[in-house]
Amino acid sequence: MIGSTLDSFSSNHIWNVVRVDGKDYFVGCKWDGAEVETTYDYYLKGRNHFPGHTLDKKYEFLPIQNENMIR
After folding, report:
1. Which pTM value belongs to this model?
2. What is the spatial distance between Cα 43 and Cα 57, in angstroms, rounded to a whole number?
3. Phi/psi of residue 13, each to 5°?
4. CA–CA distance from 21 to each of 45, 58, 70 (Å)?
5. In the chain, what are the domain boundaries?
6. 70 falls in which pLDDT band (50, 70, 90)?
7. Alpha carbon 36 to chain centroid distance?
8. How do 43-45 and 16-20 pair as beta strands?
9. Is 28 exposed, middle or buried (0-12, 13-18, 19+ CB in 10 A)?
10. Best CA proximity match to 27, nearest among 40, 48, 42
11. Which of 15, 32, 46, 57 could pair with 67 in a Cys bridge, judged by C-beta atoms 3.0 to 4.6 Å apart?
């Protein structure tokens, strides 16, 4: 899925969307897949986790959860 950030860089960004137990969440592989240490800061996150990001219009209809998945 493609979108953009609204930070000082105004850059394009790509997210993955995965379905778990019938619910869709974002997975930000680029940000969590660090060379030194893998984190889960952008793993199974909802729309509310990305306040400075905008999806391309063709993806806005996807039923992505608003809240993060609770594990």
Report:
1. 0.71
2. 23
3. -150, 155
4. 14, 24, 12
5. 2-59
6. confident
7. 21
8. unpaired
9. buried
10. 42
11. 46
Q: Which residues contact 20 (CB under 8 A, 6 or more apart)?
A: 44, 69
Residue that has been written with the tokens 């869709």 in this structure: 24
Q: Considering only CA atoms, which of 63, 34, 62, 67 is closest in space to residue 49?
A: 67
Residue linked to tokens 């996150």: 45
pLDDT in tens, 4-51: 555 545 566 678 888 999 999 988 777 666 667 777 778 898 988 877
Asked if residue 69 lies in contact with residue 49, where contact means CB atoms within 8 angstroms, the answer is no
